[in-house]
Design a protein that fits this description.
The complex is a heterodimer of chains A (144) and B (117). Helices cover 78% and strands 0% of the residues of chain A. Chain A is mainly alpha-helical and 144 residues long. The chains are: A mainly alpha (144), B alpha/beta (117).
């Protein structure tokens, strides 16, 4: 299968499995010859930011006394950036996460953090594959 | 988006602490041929007005460190900047009320869609 076909199949699968929503299509429509790397820049930024936020959440929830306001602030950020890139599953998990923050439930937060981590890394892996395939489609060798 | 300066690009200020949202909104504004500037919180936005900078339109996120969007709107309006169009942007349900009470002209829910601009 050509890289272009693999890329199309991958993105279709990400929509079909609920990883992405139509906001990602909005980002794709914003890409044009004047900004040919717009989607990859946004996706890369999301992946770096998401990893940073998950790290911060893990540290905050590891403390004996949890500052739920700070946890909520980070989850709010991740929810916002997820919504902006169309990361539907991550966004929805963040919504649940905020509810546990408001309930000040450490157990609930820890369980949901694990779900966020799984959903985020699943998405990040597919985004990385997507970016590699895009490079091939554009005639560049894959990054190693 | 109408320009207040006939024949010149609209001057937009984006006040947004979430980098991804800032990048996306700036890109949308550049596609609309706006001259866009970005800052990371309400205080930086207010400081630009104190320095005498002017804008045709400002987009402010609600919850930001140091100074929130609604707080910045109150201060900007109090400085006499009544002509600038202020757009509050938030994913929070309470965002509309907070921004409109502060003196914003419009509220737009996040994520911002290109057709909304």
């Amino acid at each position: 299968m050509s890289a272009a076909n693999q890329l199309a199949a991958l993105i279709a699968n990400m929509f079909a499995t609920g990883l992405l929503d139509d906001q990602f299509q909005q980002l794709q429509m914003l890409q044009d010859p004047s900004a040919p790397n717009f989607v990859s820049e946004v996706v890369t930024l999301f992946c770096h930011d998401g990893e940073r936020i998950i790290g911060e959440l893990a540290k905050l929830l590891d403390k004996p006394t949890v500052d739920f306001d700070r946890v909520d602030a980070f989850v709010h950020q991740l929810k916002g950036s997820s919504a902006s890139v169309g990361a539907l599953k991550v966004k929805n998990t963040c919504i649940q996460f905020r509810e546990f923050c408001q309930q000040k439930s450490k157990d609930g937060c820890l369980k949901t953090l694990e779900t966020v981590r799984i959903n985020f890394y699943e998405l990040r892996g597919k985004f990385q594959t997507m970016l590699q395939l895009e490079r091939q489609v554009n005639g560049f060798p894959p990054n190693n | 988006m109408a320009s207040r300066n006939q024949g010149s690009a609209p001057r937009a200020l984006v006040v947004e602490d979430i980098k991804i949202d800032c990048v996306i909104l700036m890109h949308m504004l550049h596609k609309l041929n706006c001259e866009a500037t970005a800052v990371e919180n309400g205080k930086e936005a207010v400081d630009l007005f104190i320095e005498g900078k002017t804008f045709d339109i400002i987009f402010l996120h609600k919850d930001m460190p140091i100074m929130s969007g609604p707080e910045a709107v109150v201060k900007i309006r109090a400085m006499g900047a009544t002509a600038v169009k202020i757009v509050g942007v938030s994913a929070d349900f309470g965002g509309r009320e907070a921004f409109m009470q502060a003196g914003a002209d419009v509220f737009v829910p996040k994520p911002v869609k290109p057709e909304t601009l």
